[in-house]
Design a protein that fits this description.
By secondary structure, this protein is mainly α. The chain has one domain: MetI-like (MetI-like fold, Orthogonal Bundle). It contains 14 helices and no strands. The two termini are 24 Å apart. Pfam families: BPD_transp_1. This is ABC transmembrane type-1 domain-containing protein. Its main location: membrane. It is found in: Cell membrane.
């Protein structure tokens, strides 16, 4: 167990402890504070909660997580997995590979792909003009939040699909056959048998995709840079700008603790609402 504990200590416990410690300091990348580290107590947190940008970033983060992870990835992941049930192995492999290809692609590459698709001279505008005669639309400027939500759904749905596919395959066929023989409709079969039997998987998946989406940075920064203005400045983007653009690392680490707290509260809420022990 010693090697495992050492790795855990170096790559998990130590960074977490340092993050907490640095959030109470004036740590900076440049200037006098870079060479004169001082303990400043809760000053970073006082400044942060007085900053109106924090509340806006928290709200944008909640919108991004709810629509792209909780609703988008979970719903489409379950829908695709459910529709693939009972299909032959070749069909499932082909569809699975197509969807998983987006998930294994790095966020930066996915971001550039969507910029090329949604750009002023991008594929979407070319198709809209050719088929519908529409004028070019600056999608990333006019609908920035919708754009990053769709891009994140496109990239992350594969994970939920694989999780739900495994859970659905483990449901005994006899249970569903008995329900059908008792007169259950297709809708009743899904809502009364299938979903309750994978409730634990649903809770686990929602928590995982929520935590993953809370930390999404590269995709958003590549597509919009947090703009236009601060329209897509979620907490990771806000934290990055404060830590590495304004060079205030102490302030940035304080913001990261808020992000960690939101993730912990979301996990507890899911467990309470879905009544599942993990």
């Amino acid at each position: 167990m010693i090697p495992s504990f050492v790795l855990l200590l170096i790559f998990f416990i130590t960074p977490m402890v340092l993050t907490i410690l640095f959030s109470f300091t004036n740590l900076s990348l440049t200037g006098a504070n870079a060479s004169a580290l001082k303990f400043i107590g809760f000053q970073n947190f006082v400044t942060m909660f007085k900053d109106p940008q924090l509340a806006q970033s928290v709200w944008k983060t909640i919108i991004f997580v709810v629509f792209s992870a909780v609703i988008g990835q979970c719903f489409f992941g379950f829908l695709i997995a459910f529709m693939m049930r009972g299909k032959n192995r070749t069909f499932r492999r082909i569809v699975g590979l197509i969807i998983i290809a987006a998930w294994v692609t790095p966020e930066v590459v996915v971001g550039f792909c969507w910029v090329a698709f949604l750009g002023d001279n991008g594929t979407l505008n070319l198709l809209a003009h050719s088929l519908l005669g529409m004028k070019p639309v600056a999608w990333l400027y006019t609908f920035p939040m919708i754009s990053i939500v769709i891009a994140n759904i496109w990239r992350g749905t594969a994970f939920s699909m694989m999780v739900f596919q495994t859970a659905l395959d483990d449901i005994p066929a006899e249970v569903e056959e008995a329900a059908v023989m008792d007169g259950a409709s297709r809708w009743q079969l899904v809502t009364k048998i299938t979903i309750p039997m994978v409730r634990g998987t649903i809770a686990t998946n929602i928590m995982l995709v929520t935590l993953q989406t809370l930390g999404v940075f590269s995709l958003i920064y590549t597509m919009t840079g947090g703009g236009p203005g601060n329209a897509t400045a979620t907490l990771p983007v806000f934290m990055y700008k404060q830590a590495f653009v304004a060079y205030q690392l102490g302030y940035g680490t304080a913001i990261s603790l808020v992000l960690l707290l939101i993730g912990a509260l979301a996990s507890l809420l899911y467990m309470r609402v879905l009544k599942v022990r993990l």
